[in-house]
TrEMBL record:
InterPro entries reported for this sequence: AA-Vitamin_Transporters, EamA_dom, EmrE-like
Bilayer-spanning residue ranges: 20-44, 56-76, 88-106, 118-137, 143-163, 175-193, 205-226, 238-257, 263-280
Domain EamA, chain residue ranges per copy: 2-129, 143-279
UniProt subcellular location: Membrane
Protein's UniProt keywords contain Cytoplasm: no
Protein name: DMT family transporter
Lineage of the species this protein comes from: Bacteria, Bacillati, Actinomycetota, Actinomycetes, Kitasatosporales
Membrane-topology annotation of the record: Multi-pass membrane protein
Record region (Disordered): 289-309
UniProt KW Thylakoid keyword: no
Length: 309
């Protein structure tokens, strides 16, 4: 369910950006998402949980990278390139970049399978960009849009790497809410000049329906479902599900928006997807462990296994 919501968000965001400036589209999505998450905390959050001001501000600071910068590049890219490209580059390049940084900094070892996967991922990305450059669909604007999508993937990889350390001491729902609220406020400042130029009364009903779907479904509900899923099957299995996002996005983009790409881009996307999957799994499929009542699979792992994860 989470991956369906996330995968369909790319084409849904594209529908919004076709009627409003990119910065305004980002504010509509994550401003609404912030409100939805605040409601979720009120309804589902642990009211006895205490969060220190230091941890709260640290979690909010991560939102500058994971919400503000990520979505600034993402929505700007959507104004130049199809959502089809975003749904391939961002969810697949993010784990490739994350693994590359971990290997280069010596925090994880690069076995043969992972090294092969990283190389394939980078080769697939190069083929994809070559295909965009030689494509008659979109031309140079599509290429620049894909570059912005790549920058979004860099931001998300940084958010992934910094998140566990910065958000320690804060439960995931509250940490995500603080980050989303902080990023949404900065996006509102960025979009302020464009907000007054939008003819709000003339926006089609579809824009508002997509905005509600993005805020409630792709932001608030998807995060709640993702945290429940991680607690049930563990982070390793949950991360593998990310590779279904390009499939969902491709179906939505082609069927609902009529987008497409050439054979060279398709080849690059396949190579990129295979490389990312190989790098993430290291050539082995993780197994789902049965946890005792009240514990998640991650809590039943040995200290060494948990540290590696």
């Amino acid at each position: 369910m989470t991956m369906v919501l996330w995968g369909s968000a790319f084409s849904s965001s594209k529908s919004v950006v076709e009627h409003v400036p990119p910065a305004v589209g980002a504010v509509l999505r994550f401003g609404g998402g912030a409100l939805a998450l605040l409601v979720a905390i009120r309804l589902f959050g642990d009211r006895r949980a205490q969060v220190s001001s230091r941890n709260g501000w640290r979690a909010a600071a991560v939102g500058v990278l994971g919400v503000f910068a990520y979505n600034g590049f993402f929505f700007w890219g959507l104004s130049l390139a199809p959502s089809l490209d975003a749904g391939i580059l961002i969810p697949v390049m993010s784990p490739v970049l994350t693994s590359t940084v971990l290997v280069l900094t010596g925090k994880e070892r690069a076995g043969a399978a992972r090294a092969t996967g990283l190389v394939l991922g980078l080769v697939g990305a190069v083929i994809f960009f070559i295909g965009v450059g030689g494509s008659a669909q979109g031309g140079s604007s599509r290429l620049w849009g894909d570059v912005l999508f790549l920058l979004s993937a860099v931001c998300w990889a940084g958010y992934t790497l910094l998140g566990p350390r910065v958000m320690s001491g804060v439960d995931p729902l509250r940490a995500t809410t603080y980050a989303t609220c902080a990023g949404a406020l900065l996006l509102a400042v960025l979009a302020a000049p464009d907000l007054t130029r939008v003819l709000w009364s003339e926006l089609p009903a579809g824009v508002w329906l997509n905005t509600v779907y993005l805020a409630v479904g792709a932001a608030a509900l998807a995060n709640l479902l993702y945290y429940r899923g991680v607690a049930t099957v563990g982070p390793a299995n949950a991360s593998l599900m990310m590779f279904t996002v390009p499939v969902v996005n491709t179906l939505c983009s082609t069927l609902l928006l009529g987008e497409s790409f050439g054979w060279l881009q398709a080849t690059g996307a396949v190579v990129l997807l295979v490389g990312a999957a190989l790098a993430a799994t290291r050539g082995k499929l993780p197994t789902c462990r049965t946890a005792p009542a009240g514990q998640s699979p991650a809590e039943t792992e040995t200290p060494r296994r948990r540290s590696t994860t």
